[in-house]
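In line with agreed milestones, the collection of sequences with tokenised folds has grown. A representative record is reproduced below.
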Amino acid sequence: GCGSETIEPDTTAPAAITNLWVQSTGCDNVSLAWSAPGDDGSEGTAQSYDVRYSDVTITETNWGSATECEGEPTPQAAGLTEHLTVPGLTPNTTYHFACKASDDEGNESDLSNNASSAVGSTAIEWVNDGTADDEDWAASASELSANWADAACVTEYEYALGTTQGATDVVDWTSRG
């Protein structure tokens, strides 16, 4: 008769990702990177990634309620660098990211480290009267100039003029896009 082979089931999960990091942030996105784990621990190639984000630190307890990302890369061989850009985020918000890897048998890695970053700011911290440094007076009765630090994520702003701080009794709020 023919001999039979016993095939051992794959019960070894991919290794946990320990170096998930934020490469860059934009006005409404974050670019992440990490080193690929393997299929079995740190050997081979995993089957898939599940990257999630939340406004709080992600733990095993709240993993299920974290928002799933889309477009995770197909895993590469262990040790190679993976990249993912997460779009559609809210400016002025700090996000926490975590990842799990799975193999072709459905074995899931432990939770990765958390990586966090604030998405681009729309805050303007100060406004100067005039076109350079703050001016004490202006010689025009019909124009007003102002300047502020670069706020790359600002796409529209509003201004108002008053005779006291916070007052808008000269020119009410006006939108500029």
The CA atoms of residues 126 and 148 lie 6 Å apart.
